[in-house]
Amino acid sequence: MKATIERATLLRCLSHVQSVVERRNTIPILANVLLEASGDGAIKVTATDLDLQVVESQQAVSVESPGAITVSAHLLFDIARKLPDGSQVSLEAADGRMTVKAGRSRFKLPTLPRDDFPIIAEGDLPTSFAMPAKTLAELIDRTRFAISTEETRYYLNGIFFHVADDDGPVLKAAATDGHRLARFTLPRPDGAEGMPDVIVPRKAIGELRKLLEESLDGDVQIDLSASKVRFSMGGEGGTILTSKLIDGTFPDYSRVIPTGNDKLLKIDPKTFYAGVDRVATIATEKTRAVKMALENDKVTLSVTSPDNGTAAEEVPASYSSEGLEIGFNANYLKDILGQIDSDNVELHLADPGAPTLIRKDQDSPALYVLMPMRV
Amino acid sequence: MVQIDSPDIESDEDGEAAQGGLRKIIHVDMDAFFASVEQRDDPELRGKPVAVGGSSGRGVVAAASYEARRFGVKSAMPSVTARRLCPDLIFCKSRFDVYREVSGQIRAIFQRHTPLVEPLSLDEAYLDVTADINGIGSATRIAEIIRAEIREATQLTASAGVSYNKFLAKLASDQNKPDGLCVIRPGEGAAFVQSLPVRRFHGVGPKGAEKMAKLGIATGADLAAKDREWLAAHFGSFGDYLFRAARGIDLRPVRSSRIRKSVGGERTFSEDIHAPGELRDTLDRIIDIVWERIERNEARGKTVTLKLKYNDFRIQTRARSLPRPVEDKVMFAEAARILLEDALPLPLPIRLMGLTLSGLEGVTKTRRASAADQLDLF
């Protein structure tokens, strides 16, 4: 293989794929990226961790001799970062080495054969649909914070996607860690009907979100089966992320979304957030509970800590049901309030031991459920 | 062009002395604990081969008296095998309430000498006596006093190992069992480890030892001859531990409030298994072994995880969280069996099966309170 590529192009490619590569690898080839130069002048860069694979295609300046080779992802990325801006990089593989030349620099890197590089077998991906990248990015932003990191409940370590018929056909995405739940609903894209329920793992979500940031104006093509999903973005010669799906059953989360909570609190999320944040200063590492006392058009936030004393703050609000005292984990509450881009948020409450529903308003695509703490 | 490593490892950054001076660590281990308690309480059993555990078809030996060990009976061995090795073996039902009571007595003795006590289970603990409460100063002397106090209070014997880190102290307590004491002094650690078979290293099981044998490693000296990279290449993250252990180095502090995250166990089979009946039998055996550990560690958790390693080395785990902490063996076994049934039929034969109980309730009160205060959606 011999090809020449703009340093900026190489760097962009590698920055997209290298975070897929785990820093500590027991299988040597997983530390490498696969470089493929083809006769039509394209260069393709692939990284994988066996569960997740990202492929990016870019135009090379020239391909003198087509071929493929694998080299250390982090080494090549670090080299590309340090090469002078505007330079052209020549990549030439021969005799088990790859020579990287740019300006007056020359590197000889060890390689591993391309045939040893594992490629995820996608199999049939019968469900195909597209959605604006912006929508998918918002869906991820609104739900990913609730993804569980507890590995014993591995089936919660991702975002759950499924289609349903509510008032009309919809696609829903949900994430939960057992204490809080975030759900995002959008009209069902054409082609998504009959889609199997899937759980996209957390790492894939993180990488996907980064890639989306660079192509927010376009559409994302999504192809999936019950075991794999592929996201293609950036149009022709763009980036393709393929991931295995979590093999597990997501709990029937709809039954924990309260429907009959009759106590409605309306409040400015920013003032509320700031108040919770201030009183939580007193909270110790272990007990993050903030108590909310709801009275007529007023919320009193308070924290009592055996070690650090007490804190209280009143926040104006709209509330006309009977008085109620309820506690929440301050961080969970802040996570949700931080998602509301409006000057009003609704909290639908029942009692201090029941799930609370939180949303911007009844038209908002995002909905949150938060379980209280005993205080 | 090559960075030369310092030949004197003790002065290397890995060494004990470089990390803030030498400590005085004692590892105390009761001799054949459960079995000894049974022999103490029933004079008929004294001098006879005794095993604690279920004698029925699928039971395992939780502990064996020294008389039984002479026949090759070991803990975690299927009772059937034990009976074959020693036909006169007397089986006793375990009495965990009694073991817990004795365990409380010995912990009280430890506490009289140092607040830095790290119990590993009901019958063993690490003590850091670098600054002992009574100002005795000599760790060997303290170990002798503790052994005498345990004998006085419980009529049971304990073995103790004294050294300057946990790894060596544990090896030492094993050295002159039962009713023995062994001291590994500063400077002797590396030499002591040299002659040791790798199987004696904490964390090296039968399969690990087999793998090492294939690589030509039989003793600590063989391990010490390998460099860090080589060990990492063959044993992954375990390699680092082996590198240090082979030089008698262990910097882990004695943690008095160690919070266990999980209790579990697993077995690698000599032959891969696939048939549902065989899988169920194996699971029952592992349930016995792990439940015994759960009892021993006084653990209470909510999540049961089944681990399967297929013959292509792919690992699958299946977990089940219960609405409340596991209270008894029936509840634990039930959860484990459901996990296995859900996994059947298996796509491939398996080479390993394991069970873990996690989501344990914390040791301290504040943790327990805070864990319970957050209510669950599911």
From TrEMBL, chain A:
**Ranges for the DNA polymerase III beta sliding clamp N-terminal domain?**
1-120
Pfam families in alphabetical order: DNA_pol3_beta, DNA_pol3_beta_2, DNA_pol3_beta_3
Its quaternary structure?
A: Forms a ring-shaped head-to-tail homodimer around DNA.
Report the transmembrane regions from the record. none
Q: What is this protein called?
A: Beta sliding clamp
Q: Where is this protein chiefly located?
A: cytoplasm
Q: What is the lineage of its organism?
A: Bacteria, Pseudomonadati, Pseudomonadota, Alphaproteobacteria, Sphingomonadales
Key words, A-Z? Cytoplasm, DNA replication, DNA-binding, DNA-directed DNA polymerase, Nucleotidyltransferase, Transferase
According to its UniProt record, which protein family does this protein belong to? Belongs to the beta sliding clamp family.
| Subcellular localization | Cytoplasm
DNA polymerase III beta sliding clamp central domain sequence ranges: 131-252
For this protein, the record's SMART domains field holds: POL3Bc
Q: What does this protein do?
A: Confers DNA tethering and processivity to DNA polymerases and other proteins. Acts as a clamp, forming a ring around DNA (a reaction catalyzed by the clamp-loading complex) which diffuses in an ATP-independent manner freely and bidirectionally along dsDNA. Initially characterized for its ability to contact the catalytic subunit of DNA polymerase III (Pol III), a complex, multichain enzyme responsible for most of the replicative synthesis in bacteria; Pol III exhibits 3'-5' exonuclease proofreading activity.
Using the record's annotation, list all stretches that form the DNA polymerase III beta sliding clamp C-terminal domain: 255-374
Automatic annotation (TrEMBL), chain B:
**Per its UniProt record, what Pfam families does this chain match?**
IMS, IMS_C, IMS_HHH
User: What does this protein need as cofactor?
Assistant: Mg(2+)
User: Binding of Mg(2+): at which residues?
Assistant: D29, D123
User: What is the UniProt remark on how the cofactor binds and its stoichiometry?
Assistant: Binds 2 magnesium ions per subunit.
Give the E.C. number(s): 2.7.7.7
Q: Where is the UmuC domain positioned along the sequence?
A: 25-205
Q: Which family does it belong to?
A: Belongs to the DNA polymerase type-Y family.
**Name of the protein described by the UniProt record:** DNA polymerase IV
Q: Which organism is it from?
A: Blastomonas marina
